[in-house]
Amino acid sequence: MVHNWCNCVPNSANTEFDAGAVLRTQKGNVLESNIYEYLGIRYAKAPTGDLRWKAPQEPESTTGTLKAQEYAPYCPGVNDGLSSRIDEDCLFANIWTPANATSDSKLPVMVFFQSGGYIRNASPYVNGTRLISASNNNIIFVNFNYRVGMFGFLASKEVKEDGDFNAGLLDQRFLLSWIQKHIEVFGGDPEHVILHGESAGAGSVALQLVAYGGKDEGLFAGAIAESTFMPGLPSPDDLQYQFDRVANATDCADADDALKCLRGIKSPDLQTHNEKAPFDGRTYRSYFYWAPTTDGDMFSDLPSKLYEKGEFVKVPLLSGSCTNEGSNYAVNAGSSAQFIRYMQNEYPYLTTDDTETILDLYPQEPKIAKHDTWFPSASRAYGEATFICPTNNILNAFAEHADPKTLWSYRYNVAIEEFTNDGYGVPHVSNAPAVFGPDMTAAKAGPSYRTYNAPMVPIVQNYWISFVRSFDPNTHRDEDAPRWENWGDDQRRLVFELNNNTMESVNKGQRERCEAWLDMSGSTKQ
């Protein structure tokens, strides 16, 4: 609830900062919880026209009052219709601060990376109000939009010649640089920035850790990655067909400069081609057709290889997964052939030897209610290949190359009746309502956290807040919560369950399967 409108600034009415624009007053919202909310702050120039598929640029300089009272449009994703809420001019951030924060407060800053599989901005309105309140007004929360889908991840020789690969990831990095310049004005400490993402947001965090060979530019001091989504990152040459498909569909293929032609198309017309399609040589549309690329610059090698070599930023890390990460995405396969075809559809470079290995690793399991015979195998295989094993393998790399005493993991196993009754178990990012509070996220699991799962909220929130404040989830943990042990060689992780939060070691079977996926990373392009 918003009590009133005010000329509210973090420290004084005369505050100025230069975000490419000189904003003499940030006019935001005062919330009932004594928290200031600043919405729709531009952090980069509109990435339109000639700036399509280019790195973000500083916004135009201007003076005056920024009315930071409404969300700005978020970035167009796959099959989105453009509207007042969705627009190609979308590079905006939102900030929540304690009302008493000043430029001397030096509060830890939690920067949230949205989910959406790199194909959409799936959580533009998630905010940290409940987290700030639960921290006793001891943190600042930031979220932001970044380019996704075709606008964020088009790759080809044409883009290489006159553009920038991985525009969506460059947006993220630009925002982090913006925070370094300006968050102090809002009461934040630029030396105490924690990256926090779920799904593709967590995957983005994982990619920022290995960007440019793990070069530490002082942009962040810690990271939280929930249900890390790691699709394949093929090379630009591998992805040329995506550019060619768009060029052919828009009659730009025969232009003297196909990329210039595409940049000249109006957003609504080009957006009609921002859609899912099959990967090259496959029949069925992939869930996640658009994704980052191993471009030779931001990523000199596949992410898994960079982690194995220790080429990542060494910071405290909290990272984990839900028990049934793949259940929301798995094909309801009735045969082993359908199961393997599904895996090839999502990972198109799998070889015959790879598919034989996958069948050995994931034989037919007991049938689950409301699903066909090979659904459990498909669910486990996709969940481990895409979410769980990338998480575990990154944790192992940190344990080997970084400080294992600053490394924590979890398995989220809190049941939600409507999911378990339908055979989905504890699916992807079902922990989100526990992190943000049931009213701060659109997750379907939310209602249970107002009733029978409500006791999980303070436990999870206080672990997360403790990590943000002290780089250790134990320092400010809930009084009823157990001590969270480090990951280490025995792969210890905290299992979240209602009224039963305990430590476990990853079982031998999952360890072996994750090692196998790491061996197949050349085929999965992870």
TrEMBL record:
It holds the Pfam family COesterase. The keyword Hydrolase applies. SUPFAM superfamilies: alpha/beta-Hydrolases (SSF53474). One of its GO terms (molecular function) is carboxylic ester hydrolase activity. InterPro entries: AB_hydrolase_fold, AChE-related_enzymes, CarbesteraseB, Carboxylesterase_B_AS. It is an enzyme of class 3 (hydrolase). PROSITE patterns: CARBOXYLESTERASE_B_1. It comes from Fusarium musae. Belongs to the type-B carboxylesterase/lipase family. PANTHER family: ACETYLCHOLINESTERASE, CARBOXYLIC ESTER HYDROLASE. This is Carboxylic ester hydrolase. The keyword Nucleus does not apply. Transmembrane segments: none annotated. Its EC number is 3.1.1.-. Keywords: Hydrolase. Residues 28-517 form the Carboxylesterase type B domain. It comes from the Eukaryota.
